[in-house]
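Problem statement: downstream parser choked on a complex file, so we are re-checking the raw output for the dinuclear copper ion run. The parser issue turned out to be on our end (a line-ending mismatch), but while we're here, posting the original submission so the record is complete.
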Amino acid sequence: MPVFAIAAVIFILVEAAVVYAAFKFRDRGDETEPKQIHGNNKLEALWTIIPALILVGIAVPTVSAIVDLTSAPDDAVEIDVIGHQWWFEFSYPEGITTANVLVVPAGTPIDLSMTSKDVVHSFWIPRLAGKRDVIPGQYTSLYFEADEPGEYWGQCAEFCGLSHAKMSFRVRALPPAEYTAWLQAQQQPAVEPAAGSLEAQGRDIFLGRGCIACHNIKGVSEVAGEVPGAPDLTHFASRNVFAGASLSIDSDDDLRDWLANPPAVKSGSFMPNLGLSPDDITALIAYLRSLE
Ligand code: CUA
């Protein structure tokens, strides 16, 4: 705003001088020439020095703001981001791992440390921060703050293979008290289905049909290796989207289509067609939706 104010004053002075000179020295049709002059050392020195001083003055706050913006403050919430083909994983210091929905406290600086499990991705939340590459074997950081609670859309912004376009995510900014409650809920093991229920059938399908080879559910299955190849499903139903935020957990059709044949919905998906029957799928959906 100060720069704008200075520029506005200069604009008005220059335009006024132009209009004045054009009017005062207009051709009056009497063929008299105005007095011809050649330069004015004093004036030229003045209008070189004044703008130089203004630019130096603007540079001081600009450079210090740039330095401030490059590193997150010490009280920032630290979250790890891992890019996968084609979804983002979020890992919190509290031992929580989630996918597709990055939950953050509103009004608090967030410090992301990002890397990729496979190829180069780019993490972008247009309303909150600029793009930042997510690179295998390297850590990049991104610092932002959501001033208002709400849901912000994010998208992978670097072509990363067949389903790059479907590699999106959501940032859910919660009021701080709700964020604390969310953190506590996420640390609980998965909900245990009642014996004999449809949900229990769904869990048996999850355990028996190979889902546990890639997906963690706390208290039900733990995948070996540091980074599982697929999203943690412990609190699947606390999210609103899945499959790179391209599908809705509230939609029966989305869940059915996905479980019937993932690569048909999201090209190149590493989740294979498991040959599930419609009844298997019904039970699995009931189980997944019980995982609040
Ligand atoms: Cu990941 Cu594009």
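For whoever reads this later: The pocket of dinuclear copper ion is lined by residues 83, 86, 121, 156, 158-160, 164, 167 (CB under 6 Å).
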